[in-house]
Amino acid sequence: MKNGLYAVNFRSNNQDYGSGIVSVNNDAVNGGDFGFYYQGKFSGNQIKLSVRQFNSNAQSVFGPLNNFHLILSISDEGNNGYLLEGHVAENASFRLQVTAKKVADLTC
C-alpha cells in the first residue's frame, strides 16, 4: 500500500461491520475506530495487525474478542483502493474483509 491516510470499511464472517481510518507510512500501519486501535507492519503483500480495545462500551466485529491479532493479505484494486482479506491469528475461523480507499497524503 502507498503511504497515506485511508478510510477503511470492514466486515466479519459474523456479518458484523465497521469503519475507521488508518495511516500507512512505509511499512507501518496505525489506525482506529470508535472503540479499537490497530497497529502493525507490512511484510510483502501481508499485514500483521495488533487490535486493542480502548472503549469498554465498544464491541468488536467478532463479538467478545477485545484484544487480538489479524493476518491480512493485500490486493491492489486500482484508483488508490485496496482489498484486504484474512483472519484472526488466534482463531482462523474468524475471518475479515476490509476495503481501504486512500483519502489523503501524509503531511508530516
UniProtKB/TrEMBL annotation:
It comes from Biostraticola tofi. This is Type III secretion system (T3SS) negative regulator GrlR. InterPro entries: GrlR_sf. It comes from the Bacteria.
